[in-house]
């Protein structure tokens, strides 16, 4: 309205223009500031193969299965295999255990591995470096080393004494746990990258083979194949076998050994494998004699559980004292001070038609001792932190070096050795990235995660398990796999949940957009720490301001 | 169009002609008839584009107007007496925020003792609230002042209170010329707020202002009221041009030029007073009157000029600052400081006490003789007062003053014998 | 305008941060307003609220949600109180929406006036919110609030409930819980802190007005809060939402615990989350992980005396309050499928 009496358009001081508070930099109030950080999730920390589990679960959560698979393939060339045979220490470490149950990482890995085989996803070799590497042993360590070296562009030849590649995965793990076609396919994928596998080829003189083949480096991954045997006082001709032998025979379909009343001696996973194989082969009765108590026996609980479910008897705290014909005398044991059980002098007798020793394996070291500088201590090959033996350019990994002797450890060794070999071939030293601090459960704010019980993998009906070698543990379907992946809490690493951006009372967080995470506006952040408290995954830390 | 109507109805019609957009209503005597009539007019569609809010209190009534005015709607409410006090916090707030609300005050005494009849206690309680306060002398002027009030409020972005004596004006049937819609539309343009709550251009109204700017804010409010001193006569002239009536301005002279004694007052009492003064002039007394039509802003300069030749001013008012004296007279004295004339303060008509021609003439004559005590309580019965004072002196529990007085004047005794 | 939500969004297979502000696994339109990069930030940076202020947070949550629900056609009236003082001290305002502060006790009436103005001037698309703290709502502003309800004016009133008069220095209001220490209910004498069996539930009183929508919400459950504000904005008539907003200063809590304390209040049953339509309770937000009230109380110095052995009876009384809420609103019984 036109008026000659206008004093001002808006009343002075009482009416204010928007945006003016931005002049008030409340960041000066702060005594502590939030900072974003990545902490190491316990699953990643616990994976002997060094997989970035959380990262690939992240892809899987979004339904990007190929992305997830490729993330696994950065570390582990055999996801379909490892998704079956790995004892998944990652799940034991998973923070979600404290909430409901661990994320079924292993089953998701298997799903992803199978997806890759179904859709024939491939990995490309790196551009050629002109360097050649010789590998002994086509087991998990050798295959892993070969794969990683091929990705770096090195030419790799594996020499394998057995008729098939796979090492203990093939010859030590029964089919019902590890279908062979999956293993074959995963090995074939490595071969397609240009890796040559010479089967039925035994190398007795490593240095000479290196010389002759013009190899620039060597990786030894021959495993521990020699059965450990205990001398038992035996009279009569009740057959006594080794676990490795039995499992290998089963693999080559020489099934005649296990019959009648089978007595397996040992408390490890191999003993369980033998027992379960025995059930499948139609043994009248399968009994496992275990020196340790049920709690202390080295086999994984699920293996024991499944073996019992299938009909094997597990007899704990007994040792075999003597064998007279079919009669086996067992001595009762009591748990000892230092865990190892002690004899009691009390006995019982059981009947057996076949006895299988499953008490572990030793390494074949004779031919290794000829390698200059290579040190064998207590029957185990010694390596430095870069997986190199005392002999320059000769590296080793897997069961033959100090390790937990699991397939996963062997995969990890192969990768680690490959990185060091690659650096060695370039005349450098491989320096692993510094590890972040591990994020424990207390740093999480788990209220933000839905209660989501673990998906139980479908199990094969017990009757069918007792009568054949079909795979016991079934596949997750896509829904289940994704559900399982989405149970991951992304411990220690921002998963862009927008909580910090949302819960800041001062609007002092900038959202940078998908994949770009967030940034604090320190001009306005008052340091209240609500963002840090409400970060579900522990990826924000409060740091005192410098005075 | 000439109509014989109740004052309240005339005001309702005038407000309706101003095209109000939000009216809030809460009943309190004697303004109630105004909002009742407005409610009917909105409901019947006589007033279009208007929301009629039946609020829960006077505080809510004015608060709703604060909201609606800030949101750009021409807003109106009416109140009286206790209602004014109940909304007082909002009264100050509306003016502090510069919201051009128009509010009718049907002037009524404030209790205790509760009293529904006319005096100016309610308007005077808000004299420092930052509102423009215009006092109407007749129902015709009530109609005319309301129309001017909207224009004034909106031009200044400041609320205006139109004060009209309760019952005497609100409930009296008189002949009133109700303007046409065309006339009002010609005079009063649509509301174009200086500041408005609008999502298209957001702003924050009602900020907290500290010592660093509060004085300036207050000064600017004062300055705005000073501007109104120019604007009010200007609008009165515009009004006269369209409606053909002198019905506004800051003051109105009633044969005061050249008079030795000038009676100064506000509101409807001039109706009785002017007849008394005419009679006195016929009897040879040099006496006239001035009515203040604008109490806030106080027209100091205009008043000084109008009284420059007078020897004596008798200020007659229906308000009392207990412990001090007349409120209007205080304002007049301040306006006339260093002026040599004598100012008498007369307080009368409290709580609706009748003001008659006879008692007015007696009082004026006393004034002319220089015998008015300071302040003078018009038509007071000092016998009753003195008896009560004595009673209170002699007895600690002397009982209810009001009841005692009623007994003294015989009302209670009479009631008891019925 | 967005669709009227049929029922609260139920995300079943998005475990990854299901209850977080955002969830990258959800479709963009299913995410919260606070997760969007272009949220309106109705209450912007630079305001002078204390560190970790629950009210500042709750106000941005609510108003941003209302902005989205109304396509940014929103005006707010604000009662006197912390929210007003810390957002609009001359010469700076933190509000980016049209906003008016009038008085302590009249926010509802001012909003009614604004709504009437919008209707009278043909701008029905512009919606109105009134907001205030518990003092301005449950005590001094109660008359105007009840009037607004009674007339069924088209206003959403939001009460940011921090259970005392904080702006004036933490005095008791009719929303202060039993045993709580305030400046006017000091923890001295036989029954230290605020008296039990006092106070009132304005949500229940609002329901008694039979207004179309009443809800309680909390700053810890953004999805629930936004759902309720959005729903409220899609209804015409008088609506009331009370949002639980911890006050670090008044409650003697750690600023970083603000959201956590709100969560504990709800998960202990001390603050029931429900919604009601036309006077009937139509939905409750179930307790997901129930905790004893002690877990809630120990986060705040205003309840420190309650946790002393001498005052075990007060702890029991507060647990009884929570238990009664849990029973009355069936907060722990499983939801029907």
What can you see in these coordinates?
The complex is a heterotrimer of chains A (547), B (418) and C (337). In chain A, 29% of the residues lie in helices and 18% in strands. With 547 residues, chain A is α/β, with parallel strands linked by helices. Chain A folds into 4 domains: 20-38 and 494-544, Alpha-Beta Plaits (2-Layer Sandwich); 42-121 and 444-486, Alpha-helical ferredoxin (Fumarate Reductase Iron-sulfur Protein, Chain B, domain 2); 132-225 and 363-425, FAD/NAD(P)-binding domain (3-Layer(bba) Sandwich), CATH 3.50.50.60; 227-360, FAD/NAD(P)-binding domain. In chain A, the strands form 7 sheets. Chain A has a 5-stranded parallel beta sheet with strand order 5-4-3-6-20, with helices on both faces. In chain A, strands 9-16-10-11-12 form a 5-stranded parallel beta sheet. Chain A is globular. Chain B has helices spanning 7-17, 32-44, 58-70, 81-86, 88-96, 121-125, 139-156, 181-187, 214-243, 270-282, 300-306, 327-335, 357-368, 382-394, 401-409, 411-417, and strands at 2-6, 22-25, 51-54, 75-79, 102-107, 132-135, 160-165, 173-177, 203-205, 251-254, 261-265, 287-292, 294-296, 312-317, 342-347, 376-377. Chain B has 3 domains: 2-243, Thiamin diphosphate (ThDP)-binding fold, Pyr/PP domains (Rossmann fold, 3-Layer(aba) Sandwich); 251-377, Rossmann fold (3-Layer(aba) Sandwich), CATH 3.40.50.920; 387-417, no CATH class. The radius of gyration of chain B is 22 Å and the shape is globular. Chain B is built from 16 helices and 16 strands. Chain B is an alpha/beta fold. By secondary structure, chain C is α/β, with parallel strands linked by helices. In chain C, helix 1 packs across helix 7 and helix 3 packs parallel to helix 5 (142-151). The radius of gyration of chain C is 19 Å and the shape is globular. Classes of the chains: A alpha/beta (547), B alpha/beta (418), C alpha/beta (337). Chains in contact: A-B, A-C, B-C. Chains A and C meet through helix 16, helix 17 and helix 18 of A and helix 1 and helix 9 of C. Strand 1 (15-17) of chain A pairs antiparallel with strand 9 of chain B, so a sheet runs across the interface.
